[in-house]
Amino acid sequence: MLPHSLRFAVPLVSALLAADAAGAAVIGVVAPQQGPYAALGAQIFAGARAAAGDSDQIIAVNETCEQGNGTDVADRLMAANVAVAIGFLCVETAAEALPRLKMDNIPAISVSVRSKILMEDAQRYQWPFFRLAPVDGMEAKKLAEVILSRWQNRPIALVDDGTIYGRELLSAVRQQIEAGGIKPVFTDTFRPGQEQQLALVRRLVAAGASHVIVGGDRTDVAVMARDAAQEGAPFTFVGGDVMRAADRPLPLADGTLAVALPPYAELSAATEVTAKLRSQGIEPEGYTLPAYAAVETARAALSKAPQSLTETLRTLTVETVLGPLRFGADHELAENPFRLQEWRSNAFHIAEPETE
Hints:
Blueprint: H1 4-7, H2 10-21, E1 26-31, H3 38-52, E2 57-62, H4 69-79, E3 84-87, H5 91-103, E4 108-110, H6 116-125, E5 129-131, H7 138-150, E6 156-160, H8 164-179, E7 186-189, H9 198-207, E8 211-215, H10 218-230, E9 236-239, E10 257-260, H11 271-279, H12 288-302, H13 309-315, E11 317-320, E12 323-326, E13 339-344, E14 347-350
Parallel strand pairs: 1-2, 1-3, 3-4, 4-5, 6-7, 6-8, 8-9, 9-10
Antiparallel strand pairs: 10-13, 11-12, 13-14
Helix pairs in contact: 3-12, 4-5, 7-8, 12-13
């Protein structure tokens, strides 16, 4: 007798095979359907279903992000005879599912998992794993690139909040900008979560800094910017991806910068799809458009049949709602997705290139 995780899908197989033979793609979508991550899962399902439309078959598989779930996810995908699977919000799911998906040559495209170790394992064991999410290190690389290209002759300060995230981010940035010829005029660790940062601001003034790179959260940056304005210090504050958070309790000041993943709905490539989704009552937030792009990528690769799907994904460039997407030989995004953005009118907007 088949295990329970396989029995429920057997009646679907003949219908799915027929749909596949008729030219439809059979795509698995792995995301949480219940629990604390259900809202994120809903974004993934919404984006995938919108991209699939009436032409492709979507197989929704629940992801609990708990130990043992990845094996069950893989069994359900294999039983449903999917050609490719997208989603994979949690590293635990992907790590358990990938060895089994390899047996059926089912590529997995994650929109969320950033673990460098998981991709190293995938390369070592030749698991068919690709991701539209950035890998660890891309954020620091983009921050350093922005500093070196825009502010080569400006006095740069680096301040972090002492957390692993803040400390490691700015350590990596410092190494890269110093290799490029920029030595910070000031480095320090601040105490996060304070109602004011006047002492830090005054030390930054004394150091002669103009641009302050902050390895800390949105609220701390907002406090620094407010205190700097009160002191008459015209600093440019630059944060990282954690700046994409609720604008409270203290609002950010206009002109605050962040190197972060872009507001995808603002991208020119997403204009038409964003309007269509909103007309259907779907807000293209969070993982909605990345999931849409993952399905677009999967469909483009499937259209190259009978070529190996994994081999096709390694070499394909696809025009998607996120713009042109291509994987490198390491199965990571070939282009760094982080963008410099400026806070104005209560939202981050992609910063225009400087002309000075």
